[in-house]
Design goal:
Elements (H helix, E strand, L loop, with lengths): L1 H13 L3 H17 L8 H23 L5
Length: 70
C-alpha cells in the first residue's frame, strides 16, 4: 500500500535538482520531527526516500565535477 502512495511523489522528486531536493527533504524532515503526531501519513518513509534520492543526486553531481569535458 505504501508503495502506491510514495512512488508518485518519489518519481516527481527524482527530477528535482540538488538545491530544491535538499529544501523539500529538509521541510519534510522538520515536519516529521517537530510535530508529535504524523500530520502526513507515511512522512517518515517519504523522508527516507527523499534522503536516498538526495544522496544519490549528490554522488552523481560529485562525479560530474571530476569530468570537466562532459
Amino acid at each position: 500500500m505504501a508503495r502506491f502512495l510514495l512512488m508518485p511523489v518519489l518519481n516527481r522528486a527524482r527530477k528535482l535538482r540538488y538545491p530544491t531536493l535538499f529544501k523539500v527533504t529538509a521541510i519534510a524532515f522538520a515536519i516529521s520531527i517537530l510535530w508529535p503526531f504524523d500530520p502526513i501519513p507515511l512522512i517518515d518513509e517519504l523522508v527516507l526516500g527523499l534522503s536516498t534520492l538526495l544522496l544519490a543526486n549528490w554522488k552523481r553531481r560529485g562525479s560530474d565535477l571530476g569530468n570537466p569535458g562532459r
